[in-house]
Specification:
The protein is an all-alpha fold and 87 residues long. The protein is built from 5 helices and no strands.
Length: 87
């Protein structure tokens, strides 16, 4: 395997960072939509978190904060009742 130059490494890392940011935003959107349509009910899961644990392999310590963050990212700035609507 050849050694990469620092410029190549930097280019690839910044490309990955941009890609990950786009992926995270897309994931957040679909996590919120999945919760809204209650996809877990349609598939027989006891909760949305258990659905996410199964689909993504997330543990409860990752799934719950991820849902909260996705909800906060998609609420209008300054909207009240965030916690109630995200819960």
């Amino acid at each position: 395997m050849r050694r990469a130059s620092w410029k190549e490494v930097h280019g690839e890392l910044t490309r990955l960072a941009r890609s990950k940011g786009a992926y995270d935003a897309d994931e957040a959107r679909w996590l919120l939509e999945g919760k809204r349509v209650r996809v877990h009910d349609q598939l027989g899961y006891g909760s949305y978190l258990s659905y996410l644990e199964h689909v993504f392999g997330y543990g409860p310590r990752l799934a719950s904060p991820l849902c909260q963050r996705s909800c906060r990212l998609h609420l209008p700035n300054g909207s009240g009742g965030r916690e109630r609507r995200c819960a």
